[in-house]
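Human:
Care to share another protein and its fold?

Assistant:
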Amino acid sequence: MGHVARANRGAAGVDGVRITDFDEKRVSELRRLEKELRTKAYRPQAVKRVYIPKPDGSERPLGIPTVRDRVVQQALLNILQPIFEPGFHPSSYGYHAGHSCARGSG
């Protein structure tokens, strides 16, 4: 399971499925996701909106995708990041310190 899903401690999205639930059926869930992606039947679900309190008393909105959607997002990142990241300039929006641009390959 990628760091995207674990970053918010496996919180459930609108479907109520937590990362531990997904992990229990990981093989079948990944096969199902693969089939849906290959047949173009995959559709992301709505994002669950929660509000996180800020130190000043206001709240910050946070969207929590389903675990399935986070898995797909991480898979796409793993495929696309090495392709596009070398083209980012250090001052561009898509640049992240410590990656290929910082090492001088882009």
Remarks:
- The mean pLDDT is 82.
- Residues 55 and 68 are 32 Å apart (CA to CA).
- The chain has one domain: 3-103.
